[in-house]
Design brief:
single chain, about 425 residues, alpha/beta, Endonuclease, Chain A, Rossmann fold, 6-stranded mixed sheet, 4-stranded mixed sheet, 8 helices, about 20% strand, flat
Length: about 425
């Protein structure tokens, strides 16, 4: 321990000594009397025992300076600024004197201005030299549009049935609805889910493979379903019954397996019937009170012409013209059969099955114009514009045809498939 003199007593008595801890031992400055003012001595040099308080004091002063900086308020949105509060500088105190208790500086409350509603920014204009885009990949295409996934069929018969419907372009739904048939204590004890539903016919279809036990069970469920839901139209089909059903509605007696060269049906028999009826009504209005002659170009226009004349409600005459192209691409046409009717001064409507390049039709028109008809117009069932090479004027058109090799309804492939009641596309691998 180290001795330290105590300050003199008030009555002038002798001084007393007291013991102070070593960690607080330091030289005490002489007392300052009011009569004389003595400049305070400089801070003692930090020793090993006093270095810790000195470092803590410096840290407190650094924290105060940091608080002053944080208290400074930046200019607000309306342009007004708030000055930082003034902090009283720290004063030196004598050794042993307790530090004064200072209240923390008051931080001014920053007033938040009300939000300003701004108009939406205009869309960014495109740069004059945009960055080249990355070419789309197969992975990107899969993200944009996932491929169609066929439902998992319970039996191969269902997959074959769906393939037939897809071939004929008939819309279908697989197991779309569950019908409860019997309840037990408020719970469904037995139900029935038909295999397919065809919206075009409003028909539920249940398939069978002609096993007596399975057929009897399905017949029982269908009977219960009709008793509870008489408004439901449902049929039990096997493959032969399906083909008879499609034949009844004009889809043809042949199954897809019987037409291995045909890819898919593009125009169904129902659509052909509706469109031909519309064309017949329009021709009847346009040629009312006129001497009308219909000339069909053999042999592709036979089916179209025979159905069209039954939809025309005015008197008319029918004739045929057979031609053969040279096939060298020059558009040359050879007349194989001339017309028998005298068309001079009469109104002629030329009936074509399909207009492709237009070269053959252009030569036929030139030939018929030499017979001096009163008017000559063209009615084509199919117009294949992607293959057009010359300008032709078509007064009546049934359908816009895609750039495919078409068969059916009079159109053939090697003299086959003219008898199909629909128009279908040929498989690409068969084309030359």
């Amino acid at each position: 321990m180290q001795e330290q003199e105590s300050p003199p007593a008030q009555d002038g008595g002798p001084r007393r000594l007291r013991w102070l801890p070593r960690r607080k031992a330091a030289k005490v400055a002489p007392p300052v009397t009011p009569e004389e003012e003595v400049e305070p001595p400089p801070d003692p040099e930090p020793t090993d025992s006093a270095s810790a308080p000195s470092r803590s004091r410096r840290r407190r002063e650094q924290r105060k300076r940091a608080a002053v900086k944080r208290a400074t308020v930046e200019p607000s949105g309306n342009g007004a600024s708030t000055e930082a509060p003034k902090v009283k500088p720290a004063t030196k105190r004598a050794f042993g004197e307790a530090p004064p208790i200072e209240s923390p500086p008051e931080t001014p409350i920053k007033e938040t201005p009300p939000p300003i509603l701004e108009a939406p920014k205009p869309a960014a204009t495109r740069r004059s030299s945009p960055r080249p885009r990355r070419a789309p990949t197969t992975k990107d295409a899969a993200k944009e549009k996932p491929p169609a996934v066929r439902p998992p069929f319970a039996h191969q018969t269902e997959a074959d049935f769906a393939r037939v419907l897809d071939f004929y372009g008939i819309e279908w739904q697989y197991e779309p609805r569950f019908f409860p048939l019997r309840w037990d204590e408020g719970r469904v004890a037995e139900g029935f889910t038909p295999d397919f539903y065809m919206p075009d016919f409003d028909l539920f279809v249940e398939l069978t493979i002609l096993r007596s036990g399975l057929r009897a069970e399905k017949d029982r469920k269908i009977r219960l379903l009709k008793e509870q839901h008489p408004e439901i139209n449902i049929k039990l089909f096997h493959k032969a019954a399906l083909l008879r059903f499609l034949t009844k509605y004009g889809y043809g007696p042949l199954a897809p397996d019987d037409m291995p060269e045909v890819s898919r049906v593009l125009i169904t028999a129902k659509k052909l019937e509706e469109r031909v009826a519309e064309l017949g009504a329009q021709i009847s209005r346009d040629f009312k009170d006129r001497d009308l002659v219909l000339i069909g170009v053999l042999r592709g226009a036979v089916c179209f012409l025979s159905d069209l004349i039954r939809q025309i409600s005015i008197p008319l005459n029918v004739d045929f013209l057979a031609v053969s192209g040279y096939g060298d691409g020059s558009g040359g046409v050879k007349i194989l059969k001339d017309i028998d009717e005298n068309i001079k001064g009469r109104h002629v409507l030329l009936i074509e099955d399909i207009v492709d390049s237009g070269l053959t039709l252009d030569r036929i028109r030139e030939y018929l114009e030499t017979k001096k008809p009163a008017s000559l117009q063209v009615c084509a069932l199919l117009d294949k514009k992607p293959r057009r090479l010359t300008l032709v004027d078509l007064a009546y058109v049934g359908f816009e045809a895609p750039d495919e090799f078409l068969v059916g309804y009079g159109l053939d492939f090697r003299q086959r498939y003219r008898n199909l009641p629909f128009i279908a596309a040929l498989k690409h691998e068969l084309l030359p």
